[in-house]
Specification:
The complex is a heterodimer of chains A (about 350) and B (about 250).
Chain A: H1 2-23, H2 26-51, H3 60-75, H4 80-102, H5 107-127, H6 129-132, H7 158-181, H8 183-193, H9 195-199, H10 205-231, H11 241-254, H12 261-288, H13 295-300, H14 305-319, H15 324-343
Chain B: E1 5-16, E2 19-30, E3 34-38, H1 45-52, E4 60-65, E5 68-69, H2 75-81, E6 83-85, H3 98-109, H4 124-137, H5 152-165, E7 170-174, H6 182-199, E8 202-206, H7 210-216, E9 219-224, E10 227-233, H8 234-239, H9 241-246
Parallel strand pairs in B: 3-8, 3-9, 6-7, 7-8
Antiparallel strand pairs in B: 1-2, 1-4, 4-5, 9-10
Helix pairs in contact in B: 3-4, 3-5, 4-5
The chains are: A mainly alpha (about 350), B alpha/beta (about 250).
The complex binds adenosine-5'-triphosphate and magnesium ion.
């Protein structure tokens, strides 16, 4: 019953995702593409966080590697269809090297080491001007075609690029979905629950974590490799540690203990960001109409987004660790129960 | 019948800063036997287990399993070589179900740890094997329960099932009846005997409850302050005046 509802819902969901470009303005397609790519980034992060119990605070490093490698190759006229996989491989290699050392540590030390590695990647990206373009990054990354010889597949234009990202996203999310339900995925969860015990069922804990780290880096790199042509730029911001915090926040917002949690988190995060940033001037105007409110403050029209994000996260962190998805699950469970009772 | 030797511990020493927790310990275990290690708190029993299972490195000495040197091997390799263990403080995967707990161990056993494509839930042979192990321990009815909400006794059973799923030849149990009610203790004794008959595994058990020890063990090793005070057949130890004086003094036999 539940399975049937789920598969019907996912078919409808897929149909909607494919039909959206017919309904939406280009601006909304940009937002949707953003949700897909950041959602993939958050999903890759959660393979480590929610499933393996490792909080990586440097996940932007692999996203940025994917973005930079892809952008660089496109700039030297390598076809898009090769540049993206190259970005993924680049991220995989960097994640494998940095992960090799990171998984030697646990818990907060692991988080700090990944943060430190992330800062190193940022510094390289920022300083190595000849290749990375320094603080400006690699700009005007605008491929127009997939680049398959003898086949014209346009990827410029918001709708085309959205479809491309949608297909890649679906394939990648499906792979991650398979991974977390596989024997490997089960061991990841076991290692999250009790890493010491895992060793004594005959598992090489470091190797297991290292593999998870590398896979997570690979998918982050994929998101990054698609992100650069989408933004038309690969810049140091994408490697900055504050960018590493984004998938963390999205995951906590949506719920780390469920596969779809980070996706829901990414969606809510980006939608709220959009809604708040495009409407906050009304809020400030309204505040300014209050006589007691200092006009100088209202005039400045400060960005409210981070303030609201904080406001939203606090109750989730204090009271409801399951994230938004837990609310949704609860509602569905209630709905199911009512259905059953009515059936009796 | 010449008993085959499965474990040979030779001159094992472990120093912690200042104290010698295990002091020149040597013994052998014959295949298919149940041996108890007894001794007061701090005698070095758990440290001995940690040395055998590779959790810590010995200061000196050697451990051989079926004639093969395993001293200094990584703990997961020692598990693969055939030694499974439980922990004095029950150690399971709390957030997972009992089935998942056992399945994780079985995945490791069959070498599927890097299979990232097949769905574990729909792998019938794997799940049948898991259910068999759960049934062997008598907890099949708890298969879908998260282990963290089980009683202490049931959790200890899950841990035994985890150990069994590793298909060890030698099982080290560290106080399997600690914190259990009389009834649970009795069940555990029966279970261990049943498992020994069914699997032919060799068991090494530490235990404070003398009734359990004399009930289960053919052989007993008595440790005190890191040293082996005495060892031998259970009935010899029971009547050994040194042991009675040092350790069993308060127990009526
Ligand atoms: N990691 C360690 N560092 C320092 N000393 C330790 C360490 N582990 C154990 N010891 C000491 O080694 C001695 C033996 O401890 P061990 O835990 O092996 O005893 P035990 O026989 O298992 O006792 P119990 O019956 O209480 O479980 C004790 O004096 C203990 O304090
Ligand atoms: Mg002990």
């Amino acid at each position: 019953m539940r399975n049937r509802i789920e598969s019907i819902a996912s078919i409808i969901g897929l149909a909607i995702l494919f039909l959206l470009p017919l309904l939406f303005s280009p601006f909304n397609l940009v937002l949707l593409t953003e949700i897909l790519l950041m959602g993939l980034f958050a999903l890759s992060f959660n393979l480590l966080f929610g499933y393996t119990g490792l909080l990586s605070f440097g996940h932007a490093a692999y996203f940025a590697t994917g973005a930079y490698v892809c952008a660089y190759l496109i700039k030297i006229s390598i076809p898009f269809i090769l540049a993206v996989p190259a970005g993924v491989i680049g991220a995989l290699v960097v994640a494998a090297v940095l992960g090799y050392f990171s998984v030697r540590l646990d818990e907060i030390y692991f988080a700090m080491l990944t943060l430190a590695f992330g800062m190193m990647v940022f510094t390289i990206v920022f300083q190595w001007r000849e290749v990375t373009g320094g603080s400006d990054g690699i700009t005007a990354v605008s491929p127009t075609d997939l680049g398959i010889p003898g086949l014209v597949v346009k990827i410029d234009g918001f709708a085309n690029y959205y479809y491309l990202c949608l297909v890649v996203f679906l394939v990648a999310a499906y792979c991650l979905w398979r991974i977390v339900r596989s024997p490997f995925g089960e061991l990841l969860q076991a290692s999250r629950e009790n890493a010491d015990r895992l060793i004594f069922i005959g598992i090489d804990l470091r190797r297991l974590r290292w593999t998870a780290f590398t896979i997570a880096g690979l998918f982050a790199g994929l998101a990054g490799a698609l992100w650069a042509p989408f933004q038309r730029v690969a810049n140091p911001e994408m490697a900055h540690w504050t960018f590493s915090a984004v998938p963390v926040l999205m995951t906590i917002l949506g719920g780390a203990r469920s596969f779809a949690g980070p996706l829901i988190g990414a969606t809510v995060f980006l939608l709220l960001e959009h809604v708040i940033q495009s409407n906050q001037r009304y809020f400030w105007q309204w505040l300014a109409s209050w006589p007691i409110f200092p006009p100088s403050l209202a005039e400045r029209q400060l960005d409210l987004w981070n303030f609201f994000l904080g406001l939203l996260l606090i109750p989730l962190i204090i009271g409801f660790r399951g994230g938004l998805i837990a609310y949704i699950d609860k509602t569905i469970a209630m709905f199911n129960k009512q259905l059953k009772e009515r059936g009796k | 019948m010449a008993a085959e030797i499965i474990l040979q511990v030779t001159n094992l020493v472990k120093d912690f800063s200042g104290i010698r927790a295990v002091n020149n310990v040597s013994f052998t275990l014959s295949t298919g036997t149940i041996t108890a290690v007894i001794g007061p708190n701090g005698a070095g029993k758990t440290t001995l287990y940690q040395l055998i299972s590779g959790q810590i490195l010995p200061t000196s000495g050697s451990v051989k399993l079926k004639g093969k040197e395993i001293t200094g091997l990584a703990p997961h390799k020692i598990v693969k070589a055939g030694i499974g263990r439980s922990f004095q403080i029950t150690s399971v995967f709390p957030g997972l179900t009992a089935r998942q707990n056992v399945r994780a161990a079985l995945i490791s056993r069959i070498g599927a740890q890097f299979d990232w494509w097949h769905c574990v839930e729909s792998d019938r042979p794997l799940n049948i094997a898991v259910d068999k192990i759960l049934a062997l321990v008598g907890i099949q009815h708890l298969a879908s329960t998260a282990v963290q909400i089980l009683s202490h006794g049931d959790r200890a059973l899950v841990e035994i099932a985890i150990v069994l799923a590793c298909k060890p030849r030698l099982i080290l149990l560290d106080e399997p009846t600690a914190g259990m009610s009389r009834e649970e203790t009795g069940n555990m004794v029966q279970l261990i005997r049943h498992l020994q008959q069914k699997t032919g595994c060799t068991f090494l058990i530490t235990e404070h409850d003398m009734e359990v020890v004399f009930n289960l063990a053919e052989n007993i090793i008595v440790m005190c302050q890191g040293k082996i005070l005495a060892m031998g057949r259970s009935d010899e130890i029971r009547t050994n005046p040194d042991v009675r004086h040092a350790y069993l003094g308060t127990i009526s036999t």
